[in-house]
Design brief:
Methyltransferase, Cobalt-precorrin-4 Transmethylase, Domain 2, five-stranded mixed β-sheet, alpha/beta, 4pyrrol_Mease (chains A, B), five-stranded parallel β-sheet, homodimer, EC 2.1.1.314 (chains A, B), 2 domains, 311 residues, Cobalt-precorrin-4 Transmethylase, domain 1, Dphthn_synthase (chains A, B)
Chain lengths: 311, 311
């Protein structure tokens, strides 16, 4: 049996009791390595689980899936994923390979960023399509995620923006593969991917750069730039400097931080270390507004007309 | 400290290790009663947690929140919620009351139906607004959720349909409060509400009817009726008998069941006991289609043009 087990979002103890039991009895336990954005590392997990963990990075999952699945028809193998196995990251490929090999699988769910963002008080019900925001380079500054945000907003929906992580030297082609405008977003996995520098990639060296995480500040700044660009193009963007947003850092961890305010305010708010996410609010119910006020950079931002619209 | 703790979706062991530790040390532990759609009851939870649980039904939460919060500034109180505390059901009201009373709170997240539906292989990224499907009465047959599904589909998005539970004798006004067309859906809590019969409601008796859960079959039948209605009105609905859908039963439980197929097929598929949910698929990536085929009522349904659109 292949077990896909969600670890949740905080630390080692966010695994479920059921998940922990499975981890303890499995023959082999893999940890999806490009995920390790828990507040603790592999060693802390190993100590708490009392098990050695085999790191399975993107390469391993894609190229060595057969190793992971080896004998999983005869013994139990666990594949651990930060968040939920079918949250922001999809592990459909591993499931499909398993089924093809006649291996049964089971999912042990947990919280993922996709549902835990509800902690800010915005209703999960009222979210539209989720978008990924990627780092711009000098020559590549995609804006299509902005169109999705605007479409959600026009429909009154909130937008969850996942902020992509990458090394400074990531290749442009790699980055483009993360972000395919007008196609399907299957790349949130890359929030957490190990990245090779262009030089090492060309040399075939498996040396990875230290990661760089996008902050809410950076995402807000990119959005503000797009707002300006659109105005220069004669558009009247739906999302503006005064649009209400939420910045979330380390959701589910002990030092989780949430800040709500205008897009302008979020470009300077201090939320600390990764992982950050951001929400662009759509229409809000009074109860949603009351909740967001708990995290307000400046409560008066909530007194204008925008958030009262349609309520 | 007030702890809002998600219990996940399956049984007693789906609580997180962290959540269980908190439950064990809290002075009082409340179980949100209108949630109990785990596969186990209160007694099984009490046995596993080693703690007595105080049932807190809708009435208690709304009218007796002060009891729940009593002394929570001096001691620790836990409020247990099936799924995630900010999943389909919102507990913002309790949080806001706590903050007003100067009581700190913490959320211990878990899987909820809002993210666990990803197990069918459809990307959470690509879901639009979530809708609730309610039981029709002879005189009240709302169709506005259908418009939301169609809007999502036009935008290429999937729609999660939460299927509402209620007693057979629920009052129409109560049902209308569950489902407010063109306004905000704050009522998924009511999937799990204890219902009074009209007679008992009028007499002021606190006698609740045994609940009736909507099945995927029933939801599909209602949708098929709306499709027919729309055609009679001269419309060409976007959602039809051959639209691909997913029926999910008891997600996260050992006997979870998933079936994919056309809306017509789902009107007769057998998924067993509650709780059921349903997804109306939007545009699909080939990987999403491959996953859905694992659960196909009839794989040939996936060979037509519809699901290939935009891929």
């Amino acid at each position: 049996m292949l077990y896909l087990i969600g670890l949740g979002l905080g630390d080692a103890k966010d695994i479920t009791v059921k998940g922990l039991e499975v981890v303890k009895h499995c023959r082999r336990v893999y940890l999806e390595a490009y995920t390790s954005v828990l507040t603790v590392g592999k060693e802390a997990l190993e100590e708490f689980y009392g098990r050695e963990l085999i790191l399975a990075d993107r390469e391993t999952v894609e190229q060595e899936a057969d190793n992971i699945l080896k004998d999983a028809d005869l013994c139990d193998v666990a594949f651990l994923v930060v968040g939920d196995p079918f949250g922001a990251t999809t592990h459909s490929d591993l499931v499909l390979r398993a089924v093809k090999l006649g291996i049964s699988y089971r999912v042990i769910h947990n919280a993922s960023i996709m549902n835990a963002v509800g902690c800010c008080g915005l209703q999960l019900y009222n979210f539209g399509e989720t978008v990924s925001v990627v780092f711009w380079t000098d020559t590549w500054k995609p804006e299509s995620f902005f169109d999705k945000i605007q479409k959600n907003k026009q429909n009154g929906m909130h937008t969850l923006c996942l902020l992509v992580k990458m090394s400074e030297k990531i290749t442009v082609s790699r980055m483009k593969s993360l972000f395919v405008p007008n196609k399907y977003n299957f790349y949130p996995a890359d929030i957490k991917v190990k990245e090779q520098s262009l030089e090492n990639l060309m040399k075939g060296n498996k040396i990875y750069e230290s990661p760089r995480y996008m902050s809410v500040n950076q995402a807000a700044e990119q959005l503000l730039t797009i707002v300006q660009n659109r105005r220069l193009q004669g558009e009247e963007p739906e999302v503006t400097e005064s649009t209400l947003c939420v910045g979330l850092a380390r959701v589910g961890a002990m030092d989780q931080k949430i800040a709500s305010g205008t897009l302008q305010q979020l470009s300077t708010v201090e939320l600390g270390g990764p992982l950050h996410s951001m929400i662009i609010a759509g229409n809000m119910h009074p109860l949603e507004i009351d909740m967001l006020k708990l995290f307000a950079v400046d409560e008066s931002s909530f007194e204008d007309n925008e958030c009262q619209r349609n309520t």
